[in-house]
Amino acid sequence: MMYFSEKKDVVTIGALDFVLYLSAREIQNKIREVAKQIENDYANENPLFLIVLNGAFMFAADLIRNLDIACDVDFVKVSSYKGLASTGRLDVKIANEKELKGRHVIILEDIVDSGFTLDQYLPMVQAQDPASLKVCTLLEKPEAKKFETQVDYTCFKIPTKFVIGYGLDFDEAGRNLPHIYQLIDEYR
Ligand code: IMP
Ligand code: MG
Fold first, then answer.
1. Which of 36, 50, 89, 168 has its CA 20 to 30 A from that of 136?
2. In a domain, 7, yes or no
3. Does residue 165 lie in a domain region?
């Protein structure tokens, strides 16, 4: 259950407090910058965006509507099950529908944390023989990286703290928030 605090800059979910970290305005400004870069890099390439559900849905909608170039979109749903040891497994719950062979593919992710998801998923995309493959993420936690994985466009590099909002969830809560909020780990 979600409760919105009286103070607009704090959101409480269960026992956890999250403080405003990136405002909708900051997010939109950065997305416009990254959209311009992608526009320049893909002017005549008709790229195909692979949107990683669920987290990237809001980011993808805003990024793509800022692009003044021809493009296609498709969706994938993957989820990771991390074992007790360093080995883990990635389940593809929904695979891409469009053919990737010969296409310029750009994966849209919400956040690159340990890098496990991309480490597992990128080879599955490469195996479909795209003409090129790049990764664009809204957020990246460089200090949390355990897998050296390819990231080509990053909107925001953030510290290793849990964040919610703008598509990102805590136990499915908070995806609808227009801003991004960071977990407060010290209690008053
Ligand atoms: P990775 O596989 O460790 O890179 O983590 C990727 C996935 O973990 C993301 O797609 C998110 O679903 C989830 N995740 C990692 N950090 C956060 C966070 O701070 N907030 C919400 N979800 C997160
Ligand atoms: Mg995700």
1. 89
2. no
3. no
What is the end-to-end Cα distance of the chain in Å, rounded? 22
pLDDT for 6: 45
Distance 48 CA to ligand 1 centre (A): 23
Q: Does pLDDT of 14 surpass 70?
A: yes
Q: Which domain holds residue 88?
A: 24-159
CB 106, CB 136: distance < 8 Å:
yes
Residue 181 belongs to some domain of the structure: no
> Model pTM?
0.93
Which token pair is 168? 């990102």
What is d(CA 147, CA 85) in angstroms, rounded to the nearest whole number? 14
| Index of the ligand 1 atom closest to the CA of residue 162 | 19
Residue 3: its pLDDT value, please?
54
Q: What is the mean pLDDT of the chain?
A: 92
127 belongs to a structural domain: yes
| Structure confidence at residue 86 as a pLDDT band (50, 70, 90) | very low
CATH number at residue 48: 3.40.50.2020
